[in-house]
Design goal:
This protein is about 40% helix and about 25% strand. With about 500 residues, it is an alpha+beta fold. A seven-stranded mixed beta sheet has the order 9-10-11-14-17-19-18, covered by helices on one side. The protein starts with a helix and ends in a 9-residue tail after the last strand.
């Protein structure tokens, strides 16, 4: 394994099981590769001083803090990979990425880790906030708190901040007299703080990972009959992480059918796999491991998603044997960033007469766009409404939809094959549903005017519309219209 000396600087080789899949990330992948080696060594020495017996005896008291710390670290890594190189304006990047990421590292990673340490080596058993935990555990660390700004943390946690394009300003109180101070961090300072905190958190997490492996944490805890399902699931997720398998969640439920099957369901992200055969092999491996620790269910259902493929599922019987193998969808082009499609945004269209909003691309074999059309004049005539609908369709036909990395779809600058519009009077209703539930009864929304289905030509098959029998149908050239029966727009 490359760069192994970075770890041998921290721990003895006999303490290091380099088979752990996660260790590869810390040695070779961004951003884990930049972990703070000094903090990793410092934290590991503190953890190593906690005997395995003491750790397992206290496990019930620290289990929530431990897994909150672990899960939050993975969430931060996911957020970094998703947004760090996404091109925001500075003000948006501060408010939507840097500020929440820094808060999560302070509160969910560092604070939860210190709650674990405080159980064994703290001086204040009642410490719960980042500030009190820092004071309670500071004798154990020399460098861990270098990038922890308690005043800044307090200010952003309690909303005492103002965000500008190039900086964030904050107000905080200090001392018994609550004397008010002001501070600011420039955009570059926030970037540096984010990077330094991330490296510190990676250092903490790596030390924790090595320690848990050293005391054989998983095998020592998984058979404890007093564990809740939630903790068992957290253990399994951590175990799968060590195998480089990303389990998103587990669920147990009784299927509501005549058989009343008890189902164990697992949701997996297979985006790191680029071969259909690998996906099947990984699914079999996952259920084999789950069945080892979670017997007694009628069915085991594995559902997966992939950044470059449509998701699918596998169904296993009560013995953990593959029962139903649905077709594994083809993996698409993996050399292009999935963000291009994920963050694609259709601009709203508005003029004096209408607004087009909430666009959705449903293209497959045909280019198929949907949207909501809001009419500003509540006394509009049918003739003028149809003119607006025609203009709106022309506007939509100029829209470019992008290549979908998960599925092969029709895309580009071209006339849409199918357009579906839900037409409403402009209003303050947030959801604007065609139908809504009122006193347990389904009613047509009073602001709803009609649903439009536009087809480019007669060759394109017409799609079924589930609400057709509740609305009044009219066919006008290429447009199928389903009117709200409660509105007689023909008299206008």
């Amino acid at each position: 394994m490359k760069n192994i000396n970075k770890l041998l600087f921290i721990v003895n080789e006999k303490d290091l099981n380099i088979q752990i899949g996660d260790l590869n990330n810390f040695l070779n992948n961004e951003p884990q590769f930049h972990f703070n080696q000094i903090i990793t060594k410092e934290v590991y020495l503190v953890l190593k001083d906690i005997s395995s017996d003491d750790f397992f005896n206290e496990f019930k008291n620290i289990e929530v803090y431990l897994f909150n710390c672990i899960n939050s670290y993975y969430q931060v890594i996911d957020m970094y990979k998703e947004f760090n190189d996404t091109k925001f304006e500075n003000k948006a990047k501060i408010s939507q990425y840097l500020k929440p990421l820094i808060v999560q590292m302070y509160e969910d990673i560092i604070s939860n880790f210190l709650l674990v340490i405080n159980q064994f080596k703290g001086t204040d058993n009642y410490a719960v906030t980042l500030g009190t935990l820092k004071n309670s555990t500071k004798n154990n660390f020399d460098t861990l708190f270098n990038n922890i700004d308690i005043d800044f943390r307090n200010a952003i946690n309690h909303g005492n901040t103002k965000i500008f394009e190039d900086r964030i300003e904050y107000i905080f109180s200090q001392g018994k007299n609550k004397k008010e101070f002001q501070g600011k961090k420039t955009f570059r300072e926030l970037i540096n703080l984010k990077n330094n905190l991330l490296d510190d958190c990676s250092g903490v997490f790596l030390a924790l990972l090595i320690y848990l492996n050293k005391i054989d944490f998983f095998n020592s805890v998984i058979y404890n009959k007093e564990l809740s399902n939630n903790i068992i699931f957290e253990l399994l997720k951590l175990h799968f992480k060590s195998l480089n398998i990303n389990i998103e969640k587990f669920e147990i439920y009784t299927k509501e059918d005549e058989l009343g099957n008890n189902i164990f369901e697992v949701f997996v992200n297979f985006s790191t796999l680029n071969d259909e055969k690998e996906i099947k092999e990984q699914a079999l491996k996952i259920i084999e491991i789950i069945y080892k620790y979670q017997k007694g269910y009628d069915k085991y259902l594995l559902q997966y998603k992939h950044d470059y493929s449509v998701g699918s599922s596998f169904i296993f019987d009560k013995n953990g044997t593959l029962e139903i193998n649905l077709a594994i969808p083809e993996i698409q082009e993996t050399t292009k960033s999935s963000k291009i499609y994920k963050f694609n945004h259709f601009l709203n269209i508005e003029n004096d007469n209408y607004k087009l909003q909430e666009f959705e691309d449903k293209s497959q074999e045909y280019k198929f766009l949907t949207a909501k059309l809001f009419i500003k004049n509540k006394n509009i005539s049918k003739i003028f409404l149809l003119e607006i609908i025609g203009t709106a369709i022309e506007d939509i036909n100029k829209i470019e939809n992008f290549e979908n990395p998960q599925d092969s779809v029709k895309y580009g600058i071209m006339e849409s094959d199918i357009i579906n519009l839900h037409v409403f009077y402009d209003n303050k209703d947030r959801e604007n549903l065609v139908i809504k539930l009122v006193d347990a009864k389904i009613e047509i929304n009073n602001n709803f005017i009609c649903t439009i289905w536009y087809y480019k030509n007669q060759v394109i098959p017409k799609l079924p519309y589930p609400l057709a029998n509740k609305l009044k149908f009219e066919d006008i050239n290429k447009i199928s219209i389903y009117w709200n029966s409660n509105i007689d727009i023909t008299k206008r």
